From TrEMBL:
Record-annotated membrane-spanning stretches: 12-29, 49-67
Pfam assignment, any one: DUF502
Species, as recorded: Idiomarina tyrosinivorans
InterPro entries, per database record: COV1-like (IPR007462)
Name recorded for this polypeptide: DUF502 domain-containing protein
Keywords noted in UniProt: Membrane, Transmembrane, Transmembrane helix
Protein backbone atom coordinates (compact mmCIF):
# COMPACT_ATOMS: atom_id res chain seq x y z
CA UNK A 1 0.00 0.00 0.00
CA UNK A 2 2.83 2.39 0.87
CA UNK A 3 4.60 1.68 -2.42
CA UNK A 4 1.35 2.28 -4.31
CA UNK A 5 0.93 5.63 -2.55
CA UNK A 6 4.49 6.62 -3.42
CA UNK A 7 3.86 5.82 -7.09
CA UNK A 8 0.65 7.86 -6.95
CA UNK A 9 2.40 10.89 -5.43
CA UNK A 10 5.23 10.63 -7.96
CA UNK A 11 2.65 10.55 -10.75
CA UNK A 12 0.98 13.67 -9.35
CA UNK A 13 4.36 15.42 -9.15
CA UNK A 14 4.88 14.73 -12.85
CA UNK A 15 1.35 15.46 -14.09
CA UNK A 16 0.21 18.44 -12.01
CA UNK A 17 2.87 20.95 -13.21
CA UNK A 18 2.02 20.00 -16.81
CA UNK A 19 -1.73 20.29 -16.23
CA UNK A 20 -1.44 23.62 -14.38
CA UNK A 21 0.85 25.06 -17.08
CA UNK A 22 -1.57 24.02 -19.84
CA UNK A 23 -4.50 25.44 -17.84
CA UNK A 24 -2.77 28.80 -17.39
CA UNK A 25 -1.85 28.99 -21.09
CA UNK A 26 -5.40 28.00 -22.07
CA UNK A 27 -6.84 30.66 -19.76
CA UNK A 28 -4.56 33.27 -21.35
CA UNK A 29 -5.55 32.23 -24.88
CA UNK A 30 -9.27 32.20 -24.09
CA UNK A 31 -9.09 35.59 -22.33
CA UNK A 32 -7.25 37.29 -25.19
CA UNK A 33 -9.58 35.69 -27.76
CA UNK A 34 -12.65 36.81 -25.82
CA UNK A 35 -11.43 40.41 -25.55
CA UNK A 36 -10.14 40.93 -29.10
CA UNK A 37 -12.37 38.73 -31.25
CA UNK A 38 -15.33 41.20 -31.17
CA UNK A 39 -13.04 43.90 -32.58
CA UNK A 40 -11.90 41.67 -35.45
CA UNK A 41 -15.45 40.47 -36.06
CA UNK A 42 -16.59 44.08 -36.42
CA UNK A 43 -13.71 44.80 -38.84
CA UNK A 44 -13.71 41.76 -41.14
CA UNK A 45 -17.16 40.37 -40.48
CA UNK A 46 -18.14 37.23 -38.63
CA UNK A 47 -18.04 35.05 -41.73
CA UNK A 48 -14.40 35.93 -42.41
CA UNK A 49 -13.12 35.74 -38.85
CA UNK A 50 -10.75 32.84 -38.18
CA UNK A 51 -10.37 31.55 -34.60
CA UNK A 52 -6.91 32.41 -33.30
CA UNK A 53 -6.69 35.66 -35.28
CA UNK A 54 -7.20 37.63 -32.06
CA UNK A 55 -4.26 35.92 -30.33
CA UNK A 56 -1.97 36.34 -33.34
CA UNK A 57 -2.88 40.04 -33.49
CA UNK A 58 -2.08 40.33 -29.77
CA UNK A 59 1.39 38.84 -30.34
CA UNK A 60 1.97 41.25 -33.23
CA UNK A 61 0.77 44.14 -31.06
CA UNK A 62 3.18 43.16 -28.27
CA UNK A 63 6.00 42.95 -30.81
CA UNK A 64 5.09 46.37 -32.21
CA UNK A 65 4.91 47.96 -28.75
CA UNK A 66 8.27 46.50 -27.78
CA UNK A 67 9.89 47.57 -31.05
CA UNK A 68 8.46 51.10 -31.03
CA UNK A 69 9.40 51.67 -27.37
CA UNK A 70 12.98 52.21 -28.54
CA UNK A 71 12.05 55.80 -29.35
CA UNK A 72 11.67 58.10 -26.36
CA UNK A 73 8.49 59.93 -27.42
CA UNK A 74 6.62 56.76 -28.37
CA UNK A 75 7.85 54.99 -25.23
CA UNK A 76 6.42 57.86 -23.19
CA UNK A 77 3.05 57.29 -24.86
CA UNK A 78 3.11 53.58 -23.99
CA UNK A 79 4.05 54.45 -20.40
CA UNK A 80 1.16 56.92 -20.08
CA UNK A 81 -1.58 54.38 -19.16
CA UNK A 82 0.64 52.98 -16.40
CA UNK A 83 1.33 56.45 -15.05
CA UNK A 84 -2.41 57.17 -14.99
CA UNK A 85 -3.08 53.93 -13.11
CA UNK A 86 -0.38 54.88 -10.61
CA UNK A 87 -2.32 58.07 -9.85
CA UNK A 88 -5.56 56.26 -9.03
CA UNK A 89 -5.75 55.46 -5.29
CA UNK A 90 -7.38 52.03 -5.57
CA UNK A 91 -5.75 50.77 -8.78
CA UNK A 92 -2.30 52.10 -7.89
CA UNK A 93 -1.56 49.32 -5.41
CA UNK A 94 -2.80 46.55 -7.73
CA UNK A 95 -1.01 47.83 -10.83
CA UNK A 96 2.15 48.73 -8.92
CA UNK A 97 2.38 45.28 -7.34
CA UNK A 98 1.80 43.42 -10.61
CA UNK A 99 4.24 45.66 -12.46
CA UNK A 100 6.92 45.23 -9.79
CA UNK A 101 6.52 41.44 -9.83
CA UNK A 102 6.92 41.28 -13.62
CA UNK A 103 9.94 43.57 -13.55
CA UNK A 104 11.50 41.59 -10.71
CA UNK A 105 10.95 38.23 -12.41
CA UNK A 106 12.33 39.52 -15.69
CA UNK A 107 15.36 41.01 -13.98
CA UNK A 108 14.64 44.30 -15.77
CA UNK A 109 15.98 46.58 -13.06
CA UNK A 110 18.94 44.42 -12.06
CA UNK A 111 22.42 45.08 -13.37
CA UNK A 112 24.64 42.42 -14.90
CA UNK A 113 26.71 40.42 -12.42
CA UNK A 114 24.29 41.46 -9.67
CA UNK A 115 23.59 37.94 -8.36
CA UNK A 116 25.69 37.28 -5.28
CA UNK A 117 26.20 34.79 -2.48
CA UNK A 118 25.82 36.64 0.81
CA UNK A 119 27.59 35.43 3.92
CA UNK A 120 25.68 36.90 6.83
CA UNK A 121 28.03 38.85 9.14
CA UNK A 122 29.06 36.85 12.20
CA UNK A 123 27.62 33.66 10.74
CA UNK A 124 28.49 30.82 8.37
CA UNK A 125 25.01 31.03 6.85
CA UNK A 126 24.98 31.86 3.14
CA UNK A 127 22.02 33.01 1.03
CA UNK A 128 21.58 33.92 -2.63
CA UNK A 129 20.73 37.56 -3.21
CA UNK A 130 20.57 40.21 -5.93
CA UNK A 131 22.28 43.60 -5.64
CA UNK A 132 19.61 46.26 -6.13
CA UNK A 133 21.49 49.41 -5.25
CA UNK A 134 25.02 50.75 -4.86
CA UNK A 135 26.32 54.09 -3.71
CA UNK A 136 26.78 56.94 -6.16
CA UNK A 137 23.41 56.76 -7.95
CA UNK A 138 22.16 60.30 -8.50
CA UNK A 139 18.73 61.35 -7.20
CA UNK A 140 18.21 58.01 -5.47
CA UNK A 141 17.14 58.05 -1.83
CA UNK A 142 18.56 54.64 -0.90
CA UNK A 143 21.84 55.17 -2.73
CA UNK A 144 22.46 58.32 -0.67
CA UNK A 145 22.37 56.22 2.49
CA UNK A 146 25.10 53.85 1.27
CA UNK A 147 28.83 54.36 1.49
CA UNK A 148 31.26 52.84 -1.00
CA UNK A 149 31.79 49.77 1.21
CA UNK A 150 28.12 48.72 1.39
CA UNK A 151 25.48 47.57 -1.07
CA UNK A 152 21.73 46.92 -0.86
CA UNK A 153 20.88 43.27 -1.54
CA UNK A 154 17.44 41.74 -2.13
CA UNK A 155 17.05 38.30 -0.55
CA UNK A 156 14.07 36.54 -2.21
CA UNK A 157 11.98 34.09 -0.21
CA UNK A 158 11.19 30.54 -1.28
CA UNK A 159 7.64 29.76 -2.44
CA UNK A 160 6.62 33.39 -2.02
CA UNK A 161 6.80 36.57 -4.07
CA UNK A 162 8.56 38.54 -1.37
CA UNK A 163 11.83 38.83 0.45
CA UNK A 164 14.09 41.11 2.46
CA UNK A 165 16.26 44.06 1.53
CA UNK A 166 19.45 44.12 3.58
CA UNK A 167 22.48 46.40 3.65
CA UNK A 168 25.70 44.38 3.82
CA UNK A 169 29.43 45.10 3.45
CA UNK A 170 30.96 44.24 0.09
CA UNK A 171 33.31 41.90 1.94
CA UNK A 172 30.31 39.67 2.71
CA UNK A 173 29.35 39.03 -0.91
CA UNK A 174 30.79 37.06 -3.80
CA UNK A 175 29.50 37.23 -7.38
CA UNK A 176 27.75 34.26 -8.95
CA UNK A 177 27.66 33.43 -12.66
CA UNK A 178 23.87 33.59 -12.83
CA UNK A 179 21.22 35.85 -14.29
CA UNK A 180 18.81 37.60 -11.86
CA UNK A 181 15.77 35.83 -13.31
CA UNK A 182 17.48 32.44 -12.86
CA UNK A 183 18.44 33.31 -9.29
CA UNK A 184 14.84 34.27 -8.49
CA UNK A 185 13.51 31.06 -10.01
CA UNK A 186 16.05 28.94 -8.15
CA UNK A 187 15.44 30.64 -4.81
CA UNK A 188 11.66 30.76 -5.06
CA UNK A 189 11.57 27.03 -5.79
CA UNK A 190 13.50 26.39 -2.58
CA UNK A 191 16.51 25.10 -4.53
CA UNK A 192 14.48 22.28 -6.05
CA UNK A 193 14.83 23.59 -9.61
CA UNK A 194 16.93 21.46 -11.96
CA UNK A 195 17.54 23.94 -14.75
CA UNK A 196 20.60 25.72 -13.38
CA UNK A 197 23.62 25.09 -11.24
CA UNK A 198 25.31 28.24 -9.93
CA UNK A 199 29.07 28.57 -9.94
CA UNK A 200 31.18 31.20 -8.24
CA UNK A 201 33.15 33.71 -10.30
CA UNK A 202 36.90 33.64 -9.99
Amino acid sequence: MKRLLNHFLKGLAILLPIIITIAVVRWLLVTIEKWLSPIWTAIVGEQYYVPGLAFVSFLLLALFVGFSSRWGIINSLWQLPGKLLNRMPLLRSVYGTINDVFEMMSGKNFAEESVVMVTLPGSELKVIGIITKKSGVKNDTLSKQLDEQHVAVFLPMSYNVGGYMVIVPKSCIESLDMKPAEALQLTMSGGLGKGYQPKSRD
